[in-house]
Amino acid sequence: MPGPHEKMNRRQFMQKSLYSVSAVGAVSAMAKNQSDHESKIRNYQPEMRYRRLGSSDIYLSVISLGGLIVEEAVHQYAIDHGVNLVHISKSYKGGASIRSLGKVLKNKRDKVYIAVKDNFNDIDEILTLLGTDHIDFLMFNRHTPDEAAEESIWEQAETLLEAGKVRYLAGITIHNHIKETVNTALDKNFSLLMTVLNPPNLDLLQPELKKAYHNGTGVIAMKTMKGVENDLQRNYLLKVLSHPEITSVVKGIGSFELFDQYLNAIQETYSYQQTFESKLLYSVRNDCLMCGACEKACPQHIHISTVLRCFDYYSRQLNDESHARATFQEMAPAKRFYSNCDDCKMCERVCPQKINITSKLWQATQSFESVVV
Ligand code: SF4
Ligand code: SF4
Questions:
Q1: Quick one: which of 51, 96, 105, 38 has its CA closest to 78?
Q2: Element (DSSP H or E) covering residue 137
Q3: Is the N or the C terminus of the chain less surrounded, counting Cβ atoms within 10 Å?
Q4: Which residues of the chain have pLDDT under 70?
Q5: How far is it, in rounded angstroms, from Cα 289 to Cα 309?
Q6: Which residues line ligand 1 (CB under 6 A)?
Q7: How much distance in Å is there from the Cα of 288 to the middle of ligand 2?
Q8: How far is Cα 96 from Cα 322, in angstroms, rounded to an integer?
Q9: What are 263-284's pLDDT values in tens digits?
Q10: For a substitution probing ligand 1, which of 301, 337, 341, 359 has the most ligand atoms within 8 Å of its CB?
Q11: Per-residue pLDDT reduced to its tens digit, 115-140
């Protein structure tokens, strides 16, 4: 077993891998002109906006494509308009999404960075499905500080890097116990964080965003529109992008119209309006923060925030019933069913959003139980 010193060296190697590869094309803004700069950006298109990923020399489009929805023609269109990051997981839609992305990438692999969320035990299958010999960013899916601190992440990442199956670095996606897990990830020097940044979390995570910026850690915002009413989404996109700490907003985009809306929006800049802020606050007043306080209080260890994510977000807001059911089914029955709740209400007492958790747990079980028992 390697000692702690050896582990630190290995981790530094992983973190430096991002910079050493990109440093070949490093751009000195002082010394190079604008066209030189643009030529260093993968898939540069003038209508897109790009931001530097943390302290690396990789520039990402401010809009990137989530993998939950892969409409091949829309993905092609978005890449033709300068998107240069796609995110995918083999689990999305039972594998249909990654197969569709593989078709999209047949003629566009060199135009995009690929971020994959997985456990990476099946990396060869992922590469085959995507039709590539490497992915760019490993995204380890971790939901608690303990999970984010696992040393096995770095060992697995190093193995894949040395095998040439990943080009850059280990990142982390965070869906629960968000503030604590983000802090652990920053302490562990992940170079890329993908975290939920809907309105309440954007406010709560201000100190962590500043720390990420200071550390040179890239941040990709996901589930930004969770709980946000449709007519507020355009302005909220601009608000998210008004934070220089955030490199890109990853979004499942299923239509040309939606992509055009996003592309048009980013031509503008955010300006504070009290009316919009008030409406935004009202829109998300009962939305789950994924803070994990309820789960810490629950004597039955029910995965409350994941149940709410399935019911409120995937099913109700995104109308993606199949993904809601699939994610619900991934949890053990004891962790998801209302029948396991003893109605002690401990969860509701600690919930900062005052969510009627037991009622939602019951409704989610009613909605999804028939297909899982
Ligand atoms: S009411 Fe149910 S879900 Fe809430 S803490 Fe008690 S057992 Fe857990
Ligand atoms: S239900 Fe409430 S306590 Fe539980 S994760 Fe969501 S916001 Fe936090």
A1: 105
A2: strand 135-141
A3: N
A4: 1-37, 370-373
A5: 10
A6: 297-300, 302, 304, 341-347, 357-358, 361
A7: 5
A8: 12
A9: 999 999 999 999 999 999 999 9
A10: 341
A11: 999 888 899 999 999 999 999 999 99
